[in-house]
UniProtKB/TrEMBL annotation:
Segments passing through the bilayer: 27-49, 55-73, 93-110, 122-151, 225-250, 270-292, 312-334, 346-368, 388-407, 413-434
Protein's name in the database: Sodium/hydrogen exchanger
Family indicated by similarity: Belongs to the monovalent cation:proton antiporter 1 (CPA1) transporter (TC 2.A.36) family.
Keyword Transmembrane tagged: yes
Compartments, record wording: Membrane
Membrane association type: Multi-pass membrane protein
Catalytic activity: Na(+)(in) + H(+)(out) = Na(+)(out) + H(+)(in); K(+)(in) + H(+)(out) = K(+)(out) + H(+)(in)
Lineage: Eukaryota, Viridiplantae, Streptophyta, Embryophyta, Tracheophyta
NCBIfam families: b_cpa1
All residue ranges annotated as the Cation/H+ exchanger transmembrane domain in the record: 42-442
Pfam families: Na_H_Exchanger
Gene: LOC103502237
Source organism per UniProt: Cucumis melo (Muskmelon)
Principal subcellular localisation of the protein: membrane
Entry annotated with the keyword Membrane: yes
């Protein structure tokens, strides 16, 4: 009987080079069937957990566990070779097919009011905070290697690891935020930071990778900064340009009539991938480009669509991003159960977890301090919200994909060590932090307090424009910092006025159509 089972396994094995095309097709069908079954099980289990309010096992955690269980069973039954062949795809599959819809949906699902009313704080956390977290993580990992606490990596590779592991993906926390009902501004800060944080992290990673490959010295530091700005600003410009182009097309092409709605939807779906491929073709970051394309298309292009097309594209990208993110978490579970990892460097994993916690604290509390310098007392970010921000720094799809790419970018097993550590960090943060989010929210007393705090609800309104930092005798340096932050704060208000008076009338055929969506904050990738 065992011989017959082994014969059947070999019969459908996609790894069999001598198999006929019929057998190869049968093997591919079995692999796709297995993937569909795991996706169906994950969605059904997630629905049951959400319906019964079982927050100790979020949907992302359930998907990870399904992958771990299937991978473990494959190891026990000696079929891991077949399953690994069915799931054996390169990181290009992530960057070309799985990550783009997830990142686009992140930008597309941003609600304008909460995002732009907290724009200054979100940019501070996402840009400055991610840079702080990357440098602190990379520096601590390098010092840990010098102190023989963990596996030693070169300094630039430590900075690459710091950049990729700084990409947060708090989809689990955000879903529980919405289920339990928390402050809309806290939600906007966590969500907005995670959206822009991806763009910053991938730009930092690519810059550090370029530094390593070209062996830049301290004398060439200026060119490193220029390269980073070229990647980030160039990708941002490409994404914004494609988004504005789509807005003008849908405004003046007259596609919002009944017999052209299919064409309208097809064009809308194609523009994000056009933005992604345009940036990649010019050597920029497609992920950064498609993120800002999503933000611009939601704010300007979306209202130029017909009502039926608006409903279709919103549901379509929500569906695709949910499938992609669920598949990634399942694959991560399978990968950690079946692939060969560098588990000999347990110290690297352990201390990396400690170091990213320290770096996350340096990110959140220092940026919150800067933001609070320019806010009046009744709108400062309270300490319990800062702690919730710190706790929400889960790692997910972006960190995993960049770690997968690092295997090819780094030699001598360094990339494999980083990939193993990143996979372990993603699994631990999603399972432990994601599962304890409900308890954390109750302990910090931020559940259901959407009306208790008004610290940033009107950050860019006229009431906040009149705030002037009080005179401080502690020193002129702190006063200068406050004035600089106040100037940045006023610039965000100027952008809001520019958007309202010029951009919206120019790019939108109807104003205020998307204001209806401001009260409902969608969940990223769920």
């Amino acid at each position: 009987m065992a011989m017959e089972d082994e014969a059947q396994i070999m019969l459908i094995s996609p790894a069999d080079p001598k198999g006929s095309p019929v057998k190869d097709q049968q093997a591919a069908g079995v692999g796709i069937l297995l993937q569909i079954m795991m996706l169906v099980l994950s969605f059904v289990l997630g629905h049951v957990l959400r319906r019964h309010r079982l927050y100790f096992l979020p949907e992302a955690s359930a998907s990870l566990l399904i992958g771990l269980i299937v991978g473990g069973l494959a190891n026990i039954s000696n079929t891991e070779t077949n399953i690994r062949a069915w799931f054996n795809f390169h990181e290009e599959f992530f960057f070309l097919f799985l990550l783009p819809p997830i990142i686009f949906q992140s930008g597309f699902s941003l609600s304008p009011k909460p995002f732009f009313s907290n724009f200054g704080a979100i940019v501070t956390f996402a840009i400055l905070g991610t840079f702080i977290a990357s440098v602190v993580t990379g520096g601590l990992v390098y010092l840990g290697g010098l102190a023989f606490l963990m596996y030693r990596l070169p300094f630039v590779e430590c900075l690459m690891f710091g950049a990729l592991i700084s990409a947060t993906d708090p989809v689990t926390v955000l879903s529980i935020f919405q289920e339990l009902g928390t402050d809309v501004n806290l939600y906007a800060l966590v969500f907005g930071e995670s959206v822009l944080n991806d763009a910053m992290a991938i730009s930092l990673y690519r810059t550090m990778s370029l530094v390593r490959s070209h062996a830049y010295s301290g004398k060439n530091f200026f060119f490193v900064i220029v390269r980073f700005l070229e990647t980030f600003v160039g990708s941002l410009s490409a994404g914004v340009g494609v988004g504005f182009t789509s807005a003008l097309l849908f405004k003046y092409a007259g596609l919002d009539i009944d017999n052209l709605q299919n064409l309208e939807c097809c064009l809308f779906v194609l523009f994000p991938y056009f933005s992604y491929m345009l940036a990649e073709g010019f050597g920029l970051s497609g992920i950064v480009s498609i993120l800002f394309t999503g933000m611009v298309m939601k704010h300007y292009t979306y209202s130029n669509l017909s009502q039926s097309s608006q409903q279709f594209v919103a549901e379509f990208f929500h569906l695709i991003s949910s499938l992609a993110e669920t598949f990634i978490f399942i694959y991560m579970g399978l990968d950690i159960a079946m692939e060969q990892h560098s588990w000999s460097h347990v110290g690297f994993i352990f201390f990396s977890i400690l170091f990213i916690g320290v770096a996350r604290a340096a990110n959140v509390f220092s940026c919150a301090y800067l933001v609070n310098l320019v806010r009046p007392a009744h709108r400062k970010i309270p300490s319990n919200h800062q702690k919730a921000l710190w706790y929400s720094g889960l790692r997910g799809a972006m960190a995993f994909a960049l770690a997968l790419q690092s295997i090819h970018d780094l030699p001598d097993g360094h990339g494999q060590t980083i990939f193993t550590a990143t996979t372990a960090i993603v699994v631990l943060t999603v399972l432990l932090i994601g599962g304890s989010t409900g308890t954390m929210l109750e302990a910090l007393q931020v559940v259901g307090d959407s009306d208790d705090h008004e610290y940033s609800l009107t950050e860019t309104t006229d009431a906040s424009n009149g705030y002037i930092a009080p005179y401080n005798d502690e020193g002129s340096s702190r006063s200068r910092i406050k004035m600089k932050l106040k100037e940045f704060h006023e610039s965000t208000a100027s952008f809001t006025a520019l958007n309202r008076n010029y951009l919206t009338p120019f790019f939108k055929s109807r104003s205020g159509d998307d204001e209806e969506d401001d009260n409902s904050i969608p969940i990223r990738g769920s």
